[in-house]
Design goal:
- Helices cover 42% and strands 15% of the residues.
- It is α/β, with parallel strands linked by helices.
- It has a 7-stranded mixed beta sheet with strand order 2-8-7-6-5-3-4, with helices on both faces.
- α6 links the parallel β3 and β4.
- The longest helix is centred in the C-terminal third of the chain and has 16 residues.
- The termini are far apart.
- Glutamine (GLN) binds next to loops.
């Protein structure tokens, strides 16, 4: 068989988590919390199971859950989305992204992707016959140069992919980015795929500039979200996609033959959990406290932080410690110092290496303290 993805191996997250496990290292690499999700939410899911909600949910998702999401979107982003026709529940954010690409990318279509890029984006485009057009974010601020974006648009450009708050860098898009994007969408009729799985993890009072706030962009957009990332249950693989009706109609044609529908009791539980806005309104402060605590602990080390404005990731330079490449350094950190991290060059096709590593701070206070104690020895 001829591989559709000849250059793809095992994801860096799997590689680093496995290395961490085999060396009993503290795992600050793959992005997932080491604390449990809410007992209240687990009870809500259990209750749904006990009540016998164990058969297929409707293909687009449970109406109660879609209604709860529409209410949240209207209160946070002042956008009225129709729960029946504009929201689909998916098995996770990564699936939601893949399905959007599978829905609209035809062979030869060009897709603008910013690097460092989350690792699934490029393979998702390739497997659907698309052509990734890569643009580097500026270093070290990780901002978009919109003039460069404009210069890369051709008659074959079909889609532009965004991610805010951004994995792996923790940068967030600002209002002027959205204004520039709006111009391009309007001028070239681009489809926007906006990965907003860290929507509630924005710090220092900043606003999350969701595409949902901008009607002129949203009319041409798929916006993807994750429950796992924000409610500390990545293993549940629950997420959703929001898109205007004309796009969502096509999305559902693909979705219904990819997984048909998503597990039912989790949907009941999440619908109930979302009824209480405090469950998501408390998240920015919860994660900002973790970021600040981690930064405070890291002051005693020779690592240098870059700015993290959102997500649960913190980038650090290690130029005061070593001039090794970031992959070698990350492996050595895991094996010799007992803390696993992700090398940021893994998010570039050409392996661009700015000697920066990614830490996940979605960890218990004690885990962060232990990690920092080890890192102070370096
Ligand atoms: N999104 C997570 C991260 O960036 C990992 C998800 C995965 O392992 N595929 O670490």
């Amino acid at each position: 068989m001829i591989s559709k993805l000849p250059n793809v191996g095992t994801t860096i997250f799997t590689v680093m988590s496995a290395l961490a496990a085999s060396h009993q290292a503290i795992n600050l690499s793959q992005g997932f919390p080491d604390y449990d999700c809410s007992d209240e939410l687990k009870a809500m899911v259990n209750e749904a199971m006990q009540q016998g909600h164990n058969q297929y949910a409707p293909m687009p998702g449970l109406p109660q859950l879609r209604n709860a999401i529409a209410t949240k979107i209207s209160s946070l982003y002042q956008q009225q989305v129709h729960p029946d026709s504009e929201i689909t529940i998916t098995p996770g954010g990564t699936y939601a992204i893949f399905t959007a690409i599978a829905t609209c990318i035809h062979p030869g279509d060009e897709v603008i992707i910013f690097e460092p890029a989350y690792d699934s984006y490029i393979p998702n485009v390739l497997v659907n016959g698309g052509v990734p057009v890569l643009i580097s974010l500026s270093f070290p601020g990780y901002r978009i140069n919109w003039d460069e974006v404009r210069s890369k648009i051709t008659p074959r450009t079909r889609m532009i992919m965004l991610n805010t708050p951004h994995n792996p860098t923790g940068s967030i898009l600002q209002e002027n980015d959205m204004q520039e994007l709006e111009k391009l969408v309007d001028e070239f009729n681009l489809i926007v795929l906006s990965d907003e799985v860290y929507e509630h993890l924005v710090f220092d009072g900043a606003q999350h500039h969701s595409v949902l706030r901008y009607p002129a962009i949203f009319r041409n957009s798929f916006v993807t979200f994750s429950f796992g990332k924000v409610f500390h249950n990545t293993g549940w693989k629950m997420g959703y996609c929001v898109a205007p009706e004309h796009l969502m109609k096509e999305y559902r044609k693909v979705h219904q033959y990819l997984c048909f529908s998503v597990n039912t009791p989790m949907q009941y539980g999440l619908a109930k959990f979302l009824e209480m806005p405090s469950h998501y309104l408390e998240l920015p402060a919860f994660y900002q406290q973790k970021r600040d605590y981690f930064l405070e602990l890291m002051k005693g080390t020779r690592f240098t932080p870059l700015a993290s404005q959102g997500s649960y990731f913190q980038l650090m330079k290690y130029d005061r410690i070593s001039d090794e490449g970031d992959k070698d350094f990350a492996i050595r950190m895991t094996k010799e110092f007992g803390v696993a991290v992700i090398p940021v060059s893994a998010f570039y096709q050409d392996g661009k290496d700015d000697h920066v590593i990614r830490f996940c701070f979605a960890k218990k206070q004690a885990t962060l303290e232990q990690a920092a104690a080890r890192l102070q020895q370096i």
